[in-house]
Design a protein that fits this description.
By secondary structure, the protein is an alpha/beta fold. Helix content is 30%, strand content 24%.
Amino acid sequence: MYKKCLIAVIALLGFVLASLTAHAQDHGQFKVLLFTKTDGFHHKAINEGVTAMREMAEKHYFAMDWHEDASVFNEENLKQYDVIFFLLTTGNVLNDQQQAAMEQFIQSGKGFVGVHSASDTEYDWDWYTQMVGRTFHIHPAIQTAELEVLSREFPGMEQMPDHFWWTDEFYEFGGERIDTLNYILALDETSFEPYAKWGEKESQEQDFRPMAWYHEYDGGRAFYTALGHVPATYSDDLFLDHVYGGLMWAATGKGLKKQ
């Protein structure tokens, strides 16, 4: 009797262990490294952004690790991820070895997502600024402006109206760092006051003010959106669908059928 009970207990433990192991290995559709390290301005929206990404991971069935410790950027550790997500990062966040590991990650065919101040990050790392596509220059005061959808042939753009009002900290960018960018969202510059001046730095007249784009880069994929400064944005379904579309494409390469 004792032996039968022992065998039953061992079998049950084996089943539980196997279930836990299978669960631990189940990364859902893909796995994301969410990175929020700052070496400059620290956005108040980071907490809301992380919470929103956790909820998004549960809703869309993908795995996610959140880190602010740059030591996770090493070749061996990065192998487990499909996409690196820079959420509201600023300044110099990776050293030379960590940068090399990230370059190898993208070159292996994987993806990158950058939100808002990801373009205010690593100005001296040419490979990174080309991957993001453009770098932040200056911004005016937070205000409401009209956004225009430029292309619907990209995930996450399906629900956006052709033109709609949006409140954010609208970035002005320097010129293109690479000529492969596919623009999907832009500002109507007649709908807001773009002027800003910070000491010697001053806004420039621009006929085109892009707010989101994507491109294939160095063997992998990169998506960037300039939206996302205001904390309440991270509870807005329109914005979250926009981010998830870019995230899914960057992680998997899957897009929408061309109309």
